[in-house]
Design a protein that fits this description.
Order of helices and strands: HHHHHHHHEEHH
Oligomer: single chain
Keywords: Membrane, Transmembrane, Transmembrane helix
Strand content: under 5%
Strand order of the largest sheet: 1-2
Length: about 325
């Protein structure tokens, strides 16, 4: 057994994600992070990515001796992307609630309970009736799209792993080719949905930036929007690569030229690491760092807006669905979403 290229790349990011995980444990232990908050989704992402990288190390050592490790590597990679995409929406929702008191992504005081919300999402109700949620609960629509997309990618990954090793699965060449085509279609559809959801998130970020500038909020708020845009660009790179990996033969797991005696080829490992794993890590790290910039933000914004009001320069913060009620809403003082 050799320590291959996949194992080396996976080990590097496994260590980085472990550092992130330990850091987040410290933040929870010191009560800087709250369990019922947006950071918990990011915490889950770090844990999933550690498991994914561990499977990558195992696959780099065992190669095709244990196909289940490769399947787990693919599935956990998809789960990591899934959790990070969801987390990005919740972080943006928190920003808008902190700055403006309202957000199309979700309200400060939701009318639906936790169980009602979960039932609606898992029955995909926002998917079939989005007009009921688009005004102040768009994040439920996003969740309802991401769940089936995630399932489709996982199914495609499982079929792909079987198609890559037909002998180990007692498959004929025709059956393996059929599975490969099915897997390609599933993964392409799932990755396309993720890419669209990422593009929609960027539109929400641009809208939040517009409102921030129009409201003349402090520089720290504009910096937060700039960071969101950078995060969006990294997620966009990840999403585009995911789609290309499903449709471009050179980037495909099905391409025999992407494998050598030590597993995946050097070129393929570099592309996978630079265009998939690294963008996710950078985005997760930036989301983590946002706590330090926003921990006292609500009070700063209230003070700033009070100064504007005193000077007679009150500004309407949003469109027709948002009102400038942030600094007068006591609920925002304990905002933790």
């Amino acid at each position: 057994m050799a320590f291959g290229k996949v194992a080396a790349a996976s080990l590097v990011f496994g260590i980085l994600y472990t550092i992130m995980f330990v850091y987040m444990c410290f933040m929870y232990a010191t009560k800087r992070y709250k369990w019922k908050s947006r950071f918990t989704i990011l915490f889950a992402h770090a844990a999933i990515r550690i498991a994914s990288q561990a499977c990558g190390v195992a696959f780099g050592v065992l190669l095709w001796k244990n196909l289940q490790v490769f399947i787990a590597y693919l599935i956990l990679g998809a789960e990591g992307y899934f959790s990070l995409t969801i987390a990005s929406y919740y972080f943006l929702r928190h920003y808008e609630l902190s700055m403006f008191g309202k957000s199309r992504l979700g309200s400060l005081n939701p009318t639906m309970g936790t169980w009602q919300r979960s039932l609606a999402i898992w029955t995909l109700r926002p998917l079939w009736a989005p007009w009921k949620f688009v005004r102040d609960n768009c994040i439920m629509i996003v969740d309802s799209w991401l769940i089936p997309a995630n399932a489709i990618i996982i199914a495609g990954g499982s079929l792909m792993a079987q198609a890559i090793s037909p002998d180990a699965n007692n498959l004929s060449q025709d059956k393996a080719a059929e599975l490969a085509n099915t897997a390609k279609g599933l993964r392409t559809a799932g990755q396309a949905i993720f890419l669209i959801i990422t593009c929609v998130w960027l539109l929400f970020v641009l809208n939040a930036t517009r409102k921030t500038v129009a409201a003349r909020l402090p520089r720290i708020s504009k910096l937060a929007c700039a960071v969101f845009i950078v995060i969006g660009l990294f997620l966009l790179i990840r999403g585009i690569f995911g789609v290309l990996q499903s449709v471009v033969w050179r980037l495909s797991y099905y391409n025999d030229s992407n494998y050598d005696a030590n597993g995946l080829s050097t070129e393929f490992v570099v592309l996978e690491t630079v265009l998939a794993v690294m963008p996710e890590f950078v985005a997760a790290a930036l989301l983590n760092a946002s706590w330090w910039a926003t921990r006292e933000q609500p009070e700063a914004i209230r003070h700033y807006q009070d100064e504007i009001a005193t000077a007679g320069g009150g500004t309407k913060l949003g469109g027709a669905h948002e009102s400038n009620d942030f600094h007068g809403n006591p609920e925002t003082k304990r905002l933790n979403v």
